[in-house]
Amino acid sequence: MAHAVTLIPGDGIGPEIVAAARRVVDASGAEIEWRTVEAGEAVMESEGTPLPERVLDSIRETGVALKGPITTPVGSGFRSVNVALRKQLDLYVNLRPALSIPGVRSRYEDIDLVVVRENTEDLYAGVEHMVGEDAAESIKIITRKASERVVRFACEYARREGRRKVTAVHKANILKYSDGLFLETARQVAAEYDDVEFEDRIVDNMCMQLVQKPELYDVLVLPNLYGDIVSDLCAGLVGGLGVAPGANIGDQMAVFEPVHGSAPKYAGQDKADPTATILSATLMLRHLGEGEAADRVTAAVRQVIGAGEHVTYDLGGDAGTAEMADAIIAAMQ
Description:
- The protein has 333 residues and is of the alpha/beta class.
- The chain has 2 domains: 183 residues, Isopropylmalate Dehydrogenase, CATH 3.40.718.10; 126 residues, 3-Layer(aba) Sandwich (Isopropylmalate Dehydrogenase), CATH 3.40.718.
- A 10-stranded mixed beta sheet has the order 2-1-3-12-11-4-5-10-8-9, sandwiched between helices. A two-stranded antiparallel sheet has the order 6-7.
- The chain is globular.
């Protein structure tokens, strides 16, 4: 029976890289019933919102979405569609694997890290206001409930995937109430998982450790802001956002998407790297229980990038988006 999946092409290069990922998934052996809905700039002018209710309804119905990047104006305009999706669908985990791929230029080799970022609160709750004319105040919100469920996800993920260790990242030495609550909760949850090693690190030290000796770490679990920063750092260890997949996961629904932006200046030029979107689709396949199809896609991506013949300009080649997808499909066959 086919899996119903909501498909959101997105803005800028989104439609091209999402189309490439869709063709690769269709060739993987998994049966997918795609349900395409538009969000972002494509519908903002005509519908007055970048996130029509029908998009949310489709994701609620299918439970799963593959999404392209959507443009968020800086300083004005509509609020991030990504943030709105996470909040309205309670997608409380942002999952960001960082895995070295042979053929991708990087200062590091053999990186294998997973960032589990809390996705709904912290400073990203958006509770802020002006204090008079010359000061602004933002409220950092950390709750026991949100901390418990994201740490539990990290521990369950480590157990399920055979990972060796979970590291909670915080600044509880300074933020003794908010980050203190996150750390206290993390220790309580981790105590229930005797088979998973647990430790904690202060966030600034963690950043230095990841640069100096990333091989010591495995699964990292962090509050929202630190998770945003550290996940990009980890992406930098494996070659950048162009090869960084992502997933936003809740108890009932999940949205899979590349980490990078919409790059509107490259839209329609058939030159954008589809790797991050294709790897995001492999996370989706695993979520759907299609592990063998995900393995086939992952192996083909690594083979094509390693060969370096049919890859986009950022990977050192001159292939277009569609050509790279064709090469990955051929590698699977």
